[in-house]
Each structure stands twice: as C-alpha cells, then as structure tokens.
Specification:
The complex is a heterodimer of chains A (267) and B (257).
Chain A lengths: L1 H8 L7 H19 L3 H23 L5 H20 L1 H4 L5 E2 L5 E2 L2 E2 L3 H23 L2 H11 L1 H5 L5 H27 L1 E2 L6 H14 L4 H17 L7 H15 L15
Antiparallel strand pairs in A: 1-4, 2-3
Helix pairs in contact in A: 1-9, 2-3, 2-4, 2-9, 3-9, 7-9, 10-11
Chain B lengths: L3 E10 L2 E11 L4 E5 L6 H8 L7 E6 L2 E2 L5 H7 L1 E3 L12 H7 L9 H6 L2 H20 L15 H13 L5 E5 L7 H16 L3 E5 L3 H7 L2 E6 L2 E6 L1 H6 L1 H11 L5
Parallel strand pairs in B: 3-8, 3-9, 6-7, 7-8
Antiparallel strand pairs in B: 1-2, 1-4, 4-5, 9-10
Classes of the chains: A mainly alpha (267), B alpha/beta (257).
Amino acid sequence: MGLNVVVGFAGLLNLGYVAFYAIGAYTYALLYAKIGLGFWVSLPLCIGLTTLSGFVLSVPALRLRGDYLAIVSLGFGEIVRLILNNWDSLTNGPNGISGIPSPSVLGFPLGGLNRYYYLILFFVILTYGVVKRIRSSRIGRAWMAIREDEICASTMGIHTTMYKLYALSFGSLWAGLAGALFAAKMQFVSPESFTFMESVLILCMVILGGIGSLPGVVVGAFILIMLPEVLREVQSYRMLALGVGLILMMVFRPQGLLGGPGSGSGQ
Amino acid sequence: MYLLEVRGLTKHFGGIKAIEDVSFRIEGGSIASIIGPNGAGKTTLFNCLTGITKPTKGSLYLSGTDITGIPSHKIVGLGIARTFQNIRLFREMTVLENVLISQHLKISTGLFGTLMKDNAFLSKEKAAREKALEYLGFVGLCDSAHVPSLNLPYGGQRRLEIARAVATDPVLLLLDEPTAGMNPQETGEIMEIIMRLQKLGKTILLIEHDMKVVMGISETIVVLDHGVKIAEGAPGAIKKDQMVIEAYLGRQEHAQA
C-alpha cells in the first residue's frame, strides 16, 4: 500500500521497499529486546524511524530519476539486509531475534492468529482510508502530476523535489507500520525475511492489482498470498504459474486487474 | 513600467549559442509575438522566462522585479504561466484534474485537515472544482471535464493546455505555438480565446508560425534569428523590414508578406 504511493502515484520505482519493512520490524524487535518497550509505545517509534530513514535515503537519491533511482533503492535494500545479517552485537545476526511479544488491546492479549487478524484488518482499513484521502487532495494530485510530466508539474507551481521527498517518506511510513506488525505476528525477526525477493513480491502485488489503484493493491496482495496456498498440490510449479500469470497480464491487461485511466496505469 | 523586461539575455548550451544578447520589453495588457525560423531560440527564451533553464547571462524583470534564475515552481506564483510546443498534459488524469493541479498553489490545506476531511478542506476543494469548471467553460471544454485528457481530440488538448495555464491566474501568459497543426477554423477559435484573455487583463506572449495569427492579433513582434534579435516593432513595420524578409518571411511566407 505504501509502495503504491511511491510507484503508483509519484512514479518513482523503488526496489528496496523491503528495507523499510525490515527497519520497522527490527526497530520493534530491538525496542522490546533491549529496553522492553511494549507494542503501542514502540509502534510510533518504528513508524517515525522508518519514515526518517526513507527521508534520509531520498535526499541523495532524488537527484537521480527513473532507472537510476531503482538501482539505488535496490542497493539500499541489500545494504540494510547485510547490516542486519552482520551486526551480531545488535541484531543477533542470521539467528534473528525471537520471543517478541504480541500486542494487547485494553488488557486483552492478541496472541491467537484469529484475534491478531482483526488488529491487522484495523490497520489495513486505516491505511486505506488515509491513503485514499491524501490521493484526492492537492498532495495526491501533485504526486500524480509528477508521475505524468515532471517539468510540466513544476511549471504548475509544484515543488517537485519536495513532493517526491514526501512520497518516499510517506511510503516508508507504511512499510514501518507493516514491519512492526509483522514482527509482532511472527514473534521472530531474522534477515531472511527481508530479501530482495520480498521487495519484488511487494512490487508484484502493486503491479498485479493495478498501479495507482487502491482496491487493486488489496486484491493483488490477496492473490499473491493466496496463490501459493491454492497451488500447494502442484508445489514445484507454483512459481512457474505465477511467472506465466504475470507475463499474460502484461500482454493482456498491462494496467493491472483493477487499474484504469484516472487511477493511473503508470509509465 | 513595463510588465516584462528582458535585458541582454544570453543562453549557451556548451558551444551552441541558443540566445545571444537579446533585449526587449512588453507592455502590460498587450499581445506580443516572438517569431523566427526553427532553431532561432524562441522556446529557449520561454524556458529561461519560466525558470526551466537558467540564462547564461542577462536578466529578466517582471513588473520591475528581478526574476532571473528563480526556479520554475516559484515563477508560477509570481504570475508567469506557459503552454508547451509539444503538448504536455497530465495524460492519464481527467480534464478536470489537469486544471485542478494548476490551482495547486491556491489550495492550502494542511495534512490534518485532509485526513479529517474537515469543512475547510471540503469547501476549498469545492471552490477549486468550481473554479476549474469555469476555466474549462472559458475554452469550451466543460462537457468533457471527466474524460481522461489523452482522449481529447488534438484541438481540445491544446485548449486544455491554455485553460490549465490560465488557472494559475498569471499576469503574463506564454503560449508556445498554440495553433500548430490546426485547421483554419480551430486556429480562429484559438485567436478568439487569446483576445478574450487580453480583455481579462492578461498580457500574452506568443510563439507562432502562422502569420495570419501573428499579424492579426499581436501589437508588437520580436523577430529572432539564430539566437539574435533582428527586428522588433508593430506588425506593419515588421512586414516591411528588409532583414526580416531575408531571414524569414522572404523565404517561406512571401505571398502573404
């Protein structure tokens, strides 16, 4: 969902999205492991730190455009993963951090998967609402204008660099949120969860559902998470089916399942 | 005081001298044209005026204020808007959204208001929409407000570009070949729009190749050739100017001249 802002709205290809996801997850894990902060206290901190890291990366990266930005973000993703993997004293290296507690709401522990589901659902709806509102405001329009034509956007009075910065930071914010939720759900984080493939998978969700389309991302995420389960029978062909599916979609419906003009089918 | 004053403007791209020491002045409320053969530096001049490229030398004044080298997103706020020679619309967005974008600077809603959808936000958005529809009405595009802009016919796209530029509420409007590729009837419509804009008090600077338009509506004409100003004056004088005829009219537009 956050990536949708970056790629779909502002047209900035970010291949290191998982890095922000990882930062969010590790922040929560470490805040608990080192100083014993609870979920609700660390959540804003996770989000803050991730947004800040998105901002910091953007400052140098925004001098680049298109493909170059993609490569820098890809590099950033790998750097974060390697740091997590090798900074033993802080992150416990490849072994990861375990025993992260689940959050509780008003005294009820949300340990079971069922209860946890509602917490995630709450955040998904919150995210959906916030992103939808921003999209139909001047900020969202400015992002889309930058995607369509940067020079032209600047002659309409849009400070293009500032708005790209907003987009990247705003996108990272949600990755931080998702990361913290992920850590709380798995009760365990390790660098293995945050590989480049994970970035690609998230990007696939956005593309599959329709770049720039909000319901599209939800559908895309749903399909890509469900598909491997449905195809469990023919396990070895799962990735093949996914690949073929994506290629077929590029040919027959390049704007994504629910994308369309106006919602913006991207570049 | 002149509305626009260009003093000794020079722009080099490496060894290429796109504009060399060009100076001219435009009075507020007038329609002026820049003409010249291809590659004369007309569009580069526009790019300098709108802050897309920085001039190598020289200075630009808008109502006496030095605007040289100010970045393009700030120039708009000072009152210069433009259209592009090769149409640059936000293609995937609707006609209405295109015009809404150009009101970017005039809608100021905080992040909090946006998220809460408070009354201030809603009323500002509504006002912007009404304003946008008004501008669309001005160029006759009200009926296609919700069409994606890439689906507009060519003439409509040109008119939308004008509406979008006007929606930034400029004092000076730069139009880069607004009638390129149009038939006589469409050209007539554009001329009529330009004259209505003048009545609203806008100053208009045109780049144009169609001599009927140039001679028909402009009060002053500046002629560029290879980056140098070779003539400036009223249409009647320009038509008779020997340098201009040699550089430009003589070759291509002799019958009309």
